[in-house]
Fold each of these.
Amino acid sequence: MKKVCIIGAGSTGIAAAKTLKDHGISYDCFEKGSDIGGNWRYDNDNGMSSAYRSLHINTNREVMAYSDYPLTRDLPMFPHHSHIIKYFEEYVEHFGLRDSITFNTAVTDVSRNANGTYRVTTDQGDTRTYSHVMVCNGHHWNPRFPEPPFPGEFAGEVLHAHHYRVPEQIMYKNVLIVGIGNSAVDIACEAAKLHSGRVTISSRSGAYIVPNWFMSMPFDDLANPLTAKLPLSIQRALLKVSLYLARGKQEDYGVPTPKRPPLQEHPTLSQELLNLSGRGLIDFKPNIKEFRGKEVVFEDGSSGTYDMIVYATGYRVTFPFLKEHTFDVGSSNEFRLYKKVIHPDWPNLFFMALVQPLGAIMPLAEVQAKWVAKLITGECKLPSQQAIKESIEQDRQAMQRRYKASPRHTLQVDFFPYKESIEREMKRR
């Protein structure tokens, strides 16, 4: 009998549970915390949430919703985390999923049996056998710091963005934020609005700052299946023009413009950064050269004294319940899978939502779950082992051509092309 283990009940785990239920597939879902929602549950007692009190989602409510359960129109276009978690709770109740989730239970070990099934052990001392396993433990919970560490020793406070919750943590401090992704910029803007200390962002190469709004419409509405099919050079040109019309030149606000073209990295979304930088409330420095106590020396020879460093330097892809060396991806986050889901040497073990999309992640997790469900029921098939390995290598080469080498970009996908590629997989007979 086919039975599936779902690890985690965040936004991906609940979509997996709903999809398996739709397909009549038996499953158990284990959640380390006492409730659903994963990263979107503020102060989640599973200890893995990176949500801060002011967090809003950066993709608009229309594009982030699951296909069969839209967000209500009375919500803001870019909802607060409290709205998002309420949406997930309503989704679980609407589709009757809660009773199938075992809470306060962490999966501690997943091992493969000789017959190809999987033995799953939890921290409650329970061990069960499953025909398939869906890994939905997320990839924004294990903080990553710069490697190798910067020379010298910093004498002030050190905080990773994963542990940032409220402005009081950074109030009355001169703060240096390392990184220029979404969390880095959110924290910098929050610190700047306190007017209680100097705020500096240190970045190796800068980022294109994309606003949330463009001519009274969500900026991410400009992306669609049509524009996604255009040559990359034309997509870049269109984005450059749209950014210029939306906010002019970002360097005119004091925010450095990257030397590389747009869409060569994950963009940074912020409606506030340019305005606050233009007011002189946030300044920018290149990469750190070394620490000298509370003094930080930068690669351009300049220096500054800071009370706190906030490392907004991303996360390690980590699977603590998979003990095989194969699944230890180290600091590189290099973990190559077929269509970002299937390891060629571990059949029936599926890695869900292990992607970093230019767009919302929830609809991609949902379409992945539909594909996996069809594979389990036999409605569709995988290609040959050789074809799988060739596809993984082609994907690796394409990523190297498209993006700068960085742990941040090993999981990168373009929303519409990726979604369409999974939908094609569902038709493979």
Amino acid sequence: METIYPDIPRICTAMAEWIMCFAYVSFLPKRYTGRKNILFCIIALLLQIFILVSTAIVPLKYWILCMILAAGCMFAFIYMCCELTTGQALYCCAIAFILAEFIASLEWQLYIYLLKWNLQFPGENLILLAIIYIGMFWVVFYLEVALLTKEFLQELSVWELISTVALVIMTFAFSNINFLVADQPFNNAVRLNIFEMRTLIDFSGIAVLYAFQSRVSEYISKKEMESIQTMLKSQYDQYRSYQDSMEFIRIQRHDLKHHIALLRAETDLQKREEWLATLEHELDSNNFVDPTGNRVLDVILSAKGQLMKKQKIHFTCVADGALLDSIHVTDICTVIGNALDNAIESVLMVENSEKRMIHLSLTQKNDFIFIQIRNYCEKEPVWKGKELLTTKKIRKIMVTE
């Protein structure tokens, strides 16, 4: 008589779900430390086993509710042990759930193959379980610790979270389609094909999720590289600004020595006073910007001010730099530096140097920091509906109400 292959034991599924959650708990920032965290892990394991084992006799129509309860226990485990938001914990729970389905299915499929080939040996199920579960734990740990970073979780949007959860639900539904036909008198070959299909579908879902995570990680890495490049450019501009300032001071010092020598030789007090007033006016005119209250902004304005002076651009500034104290250096350099570069690029197209004017204002309006940069432009802006066209080929600005 042909032996009917059994389905995955509930305790194996419970352990798979717990160990995948534990993989995330191992490297994500902890909400608690020490004994409290260990206690939560033990309680989560016992609760996961109790939920799945005790619901084994539940009618098939209530099976989906039991799986939702098990997934809720996984969510609570991750959320209670890790310092994550609800959305971040849900994202990790969704991935841990489909990973658990995969490793439980993979381990049981290998066990069925041993039965099929008559390769049974004492404790083969426990040995396979230990090898597969522990091996997958380390694989998931080393893959996810590199991808699921703090920056990744912070960049996670609501739409990405919904897409991930939807993909996990669809993968789980297709991989467990055999439950809908569990009462059919299938032979061993058909049941083995069902196990193989279940494992394959779970693996396909994991591959899609991993590809998604890789793309987001690449985007974050690219964004970090752009921030680093912006910071390096700002540092280079600062160095050039200091270099130009030192050269300017050297020239002024050299000229000042000659002025002092001539002043000493001048006997007419009125001419001497006129000469001193002229020197004082020249020194005042060499100040590019007054201190704003933010050192980073002062450096940017000083560097851009020297550049604008060389290009005969009239630059005025009214800025409360203290408003930028809570903003990261990179963001200040990116926003204001790029905006001033665009303004300079625009006014340089004006042939009449007297019309080359740029004005920057930085104020607070309600709870917002209002940055406004105005420059003279001879051409009227071109609008296409609410889309403001630009002279640059690959960029466009969307204006929304």
